Amino acid sequence: MKRRIPGLLPAVTGAALIAAWYAAIRLFHLAPYVLPSPGAILEAGWRERHTLALSALITGEGALLGFLAAVLGGFLLSGIMAFSFRLKESLYPYILILQMTPVIILAPIFVLWFGQGLPSIVAITFMICFFPIVANTTMGMISVDRNLQELLVLCRARRIQEIRYLRVPGAMPYFLTGMKIAGSLAPIGAITGDLLTGTAQNGVGGMGFMTILYFSQLKIPELFASGLVACLLGFLFVGGVNLVHWLVLRRWHDSLVKPG
Amino acid sequence: MSASPLVRLERVGKRFGAGPAVLAGLDLAVEAGEFVSFIGPSGCGKSTLLRLIAGLGAPTEGAISVAGRTPERAREELFFVFQDPTLLPWRRVAANVELPLLLRGEPADRRRERVRQMLALVGLEAAAGQFPWQLSGGMRMRASIARALSVAPRLLLLDEPFGALDEITRDQLNADLLAIRERDPFTACLVTHSVAEAVFLSSRVIVLAPNPGRVAATISVPFAYPRTAALRESPEFLERLAACAHALRGVIPS
User: Which domains does chain B have, with CATH numbers?
Assistant: First the structure.
């Protein structure tokens, strides 16, 4: 087999997509406010780079704080639920109810409680990120190999030791999977929060705020550019979680160790 | 009367839920210093029996005592070697061997010394810093045995520990287990599918019959310890082997 050049296939696909994009604009005579060209989007992004960077920073802050709160809170709650089956039975339905209630509806209540801007954005991001972490981590805490459980019984381990030495490390792959899902949702949560409760200073707000602003001014290339920035923000989060995944599991987990 | 046996089973029966009896009317005594093997066809309840002695589940009839107590209360006296090595994949070999000592609250310097001794005993010093996935099946089982012996149990329960290994590795580990026992004596109960393994290791082989599991025959194996691999080729050994195989043939349902 010939040696493959890494990244060649996605690069070819990307080039084809961009060509098709330009072709569609030409072919269907699309106006720039319907579908701006990739070049126009990059131009607009560069023109607005200071605004967009500040906007991404504002949204990133909300996303990061909400995400970290969900990671911490979700992990602790799963650990508590691992303590006893009854505790899990008692709490889990309410976690589900919380998850099933659309955040959009909760947003005004959060504004009422926490005020406009960052605190409400963090709360909304937290709500979106919390469930994937709790659901996955709890699954990990209860899916411990039966033999290993019996081993700890034979070692006369106390419940707290069982959780510390068996359930928490065993749940790590699940916890990290939950973190990956939550990480990809965090920027979406923060942007949604910003759309609903965001504020602006000197005409610059979070990415949700900028979306509304650009749209109302029919700055469509800028709108697309802000979408591109939001996408990069999402990659930053997922990349960060992937790094943590690698750091935690690289030595022992099947997903990362290479046999031989 | 001599001292009471280390393990005593009186009319022990076991059934799971409303199912048929897995074990029925078992009377059994294992004296300190014995090496007893249980052998029998699949489903004769030999693993269940071993688990009951370990206190992993309670008999539905009769009583079991280990060192004069119930198995649950005698946990510091015994340890169990599972069919799988049952190592924690995120702990290095030394940390796996250390685990029972750690959970019992032994001080760190004593743990370190004991782990070093145990790894030397099973010939795994060089693998101390490796993770379980980096070891061969035989090495993993050595680590599992080292972990079981780290707490110096009076009674070691072995549930088909070598069943998944190739014959050469298995014979090697059989010989090593006996060598370890010379240095660090323990009473052993072994469940196995291999007649040769049972005869080579044990002072007594108990043949179980199925449906429900009960003692069908007891064959004593009077060869002195330490035993070496050469024993396997002697006529006396082959004669014991034949006696066990004969008893086993009698309990296999046609």
Answer: 7-251 (3.40.50.300)
